[in-house]
Amino acid sequence: MWTPAMNEREFKERTKKLALKIIQLVEDLPGGRLTNTIGRQLLRSGTSIGANYRAACRGKSTADVIAKLSIVEEEADETHYWLELLAESGIMPLRNLEALMTETNEILAMTVASIKTLRSRQ
Q1: Which residues, in sequence order, are CB contacts of 84 under 8 Å at separation 6+?
Q2: pTM of the model
Q3: By C-alpha distance, which of 50, 82, 70 is closest to 115?
Q4: 53 vs 83: CA distance, rounded Å
């Protein structure tokens, strides 16, 4: 769950846990061309969130950090989209995806808030 005092280490861990859950979900998806395609996209975007957050933590300037956090924002939003498609297409029941969707939304909201804060300081 989101806390306003979440630090860099905690957020790195949280995005890694999300990636691991996404990996497991993709492994558990039923076979098929459609599912494999959505699964690959979900795997790419869901694991990219944490990787890009780590890159943002090593940003060389505020503008660089904002640019990298913007990628985190895009990847989190895309991940949520693929999760919605899995549910709405009937590939996976919504109840199996709700926790991941909530977590992705919370990470997205925290990322957007961080970007806004950094922009206001520029």
Answers
A1: 101
A2: 0.91
A3: 70
A4: 20
Structural domains of the chain ordered from first start: 8-121 (1.20.1440.60)
Q: Cα Rg for the chain, rounded, in angstroms?
A: 15
DSSP-based three-state secondary structure for 56: helix
**Residue 59 C-alpha from the chain's centroid:** 19
Question: Which one, of 115, 55, 56, 104, lies nearest residue 79 by Cα?
Answer: 104
Q: Which of 78, 82, 84, 83 lies closest to 108 in space, CA to CA?
A: 78
Q: pLDDT, tens digit, for every residue of 5-47?
A: 568 999 999 999 999 999 999 999 998 999 999 999 999 999 9
Contact predicate 85/110, CB 8 Å: no
